[in-house]
Amino acid sequence: MTDRAVAGTRPFAGFEWLLALRYLRAQRRAGFISVIAGFSFLGIMLGVATLIVVMAVMNGFRTELMDKILGLNGHAVVQGYDTPFVDYEAVDAAIETIPGVRLSFPFVEGQALASSPLGGFGALVRGMREADLQQLGSVARNVLQGTLEGFDKGEGIAVGARLAERLGLSAGDRLTLISPRGAATPFGTTPRIKAYPVVAVFEIGMSEYDGAFIFMPFEEAQAYFNMDGMATGVEVMIDNPDHVDALRRSLDEVIDRPIFVSDWRQRNQTFFSALEVERNVMFLILTMIVLVAALNIVSGLIMLVKDKGHDIAILRTMGATRGAVMRVFLITGASIGFVGTFAGLMLGMVICWNVESIRQGLSRLTGTELFSPELYYLSRLPAEMDAREVIAVVVMALVLSFLATLYPSWRAARLDPVEALRYE
């Protein structure tokens, strides 16, 4: 009889699973313990789901911002110094010979006041050739009104959607631009005021750009900003933004004139560094939710062990080993963590796949605009799940849940059956 009992206590035998799952079910006498187990399950599920959703949204936020910023501004800007940048065509031709360069083009840039009968707003005017603007996918593929065809032939301009909305403009209307860099007179420099027809309205999807950018034909911009024969710089876009250091070395080799090069990391260093710090801090803060849920498992199992002391003593006298008792409570606690983790994984994935619909639904329900584009720069809420991060979250939750079961299980295994049954 003893041999059969000992043989029945092989690791993770059927009776161990039977007891563990029985302890998880709510019973009249141990109802409070089951409530604690339920809250532990909910805590782990919500903690894992929240971690996955927050990390996915922050990844999507960073990716979308990089696509918008680098899709419009390029990965590097080459500017001349010491002498006027009149040889921009030769510099552009030299840059195009560098392997890995996807697109390069000269541009003229200046600030102006965009005015209409509804008011005036500051704008960044960028002069570009039609062929280059058509290759700038973030603009060419997102024209809401009008067209960019024949952009070089006329004096029309392309205006961002938010700026057009503020000024009450649509394709075909006229927009007045006022620049302080006007004609020089004996009485000083007078502002330059000129009205342009709006030939296109575009929406990049980043409110900061849609509310400030105006594109103008290259030669017209040269004339408007008193830069005849000159360019502000040459934008360079490469296949891999992370190879910008190699690009800087190549630029110094192929360009035979003094130049100043600024890349996307220098122009946006503070912004992307702040995003990375925020992402890491949010991960640590939200991990606390999972940790608190794991501590609930500890408290629930300790109370379960005290409540089941009589049952443990009987099992020991029937031949169950300490290891078998310990495994029963390990299975009980780990089951809560395992099921809660994977329920949280499923919940998090569902929310990530429908995060924009959820945002819109909550906005309609509350009557407020959640994640305002003016504050968060994007017109939609992005979510991009990273497989490595999701696996890391799941593994972390499983490990914490397993570690939470060790001490209560060890307490159960150390219980002396004689002491437990002395007063029975």
What does it look like?
This protein is an alpha+beta fold and 424 residues long. The protein has two domains: 2-66 and 271-421, no CATH class; 83-257, no CATH class. Helix content is 56%, strand content 18%. The protein has helices at 2-7, 14-24, 31-73, 88-95, 130-135, 137-140, 161-167, 207-210, 218-224, 244-254, 264-267, 269-307, 309-317, 322-353, 355-366, 373-376, 387-413, 417-421; strands spanning 76-80, 101-116, 119-128, 143-146, 157-160, 174-179, 184-185, 188-189, 192-202, 213-217, 233-238, 259-263. A six-stranded mixed β-barrel has the order 2-3-10-5-9-6. It has a two-stranded antiparallel ribbon with strand order 7-8. The longest helix is centred in the N-terminal third of the chain and has 43 residues, at 31-73. Residues 1-8 have low confidence and may be disordered. It is found in: Cell membrane. It is a multi-pass membrane protein.
Write a short abstract of this structure.
The protein has 424 residues and is an alpha+beta fold. 56% of the residues lie in helices and 18% in strands. It folds into two domains: 2-66 and 271-421, no CATH class; 83-257, no CATH class.
**Rg calculated over all Cα atoms:** 33 Å
Structural class: alpha+beta
Query: What level of helicity do the residues show?
Result: 55-70%
Order of helices and strands: HHHEHEEHHEEHEEEEHEHEHEHHHHHHHH
Number of helices: 18
List keywords for this structure.
lipoprotein; two-stranded antiparallel ribbon; 424 residues; elongated; 12 strands; membrane; six-stranded mixed β-barrel; MacB_PCD; Lipoprotein-release_system; transmembrane; 2 domains
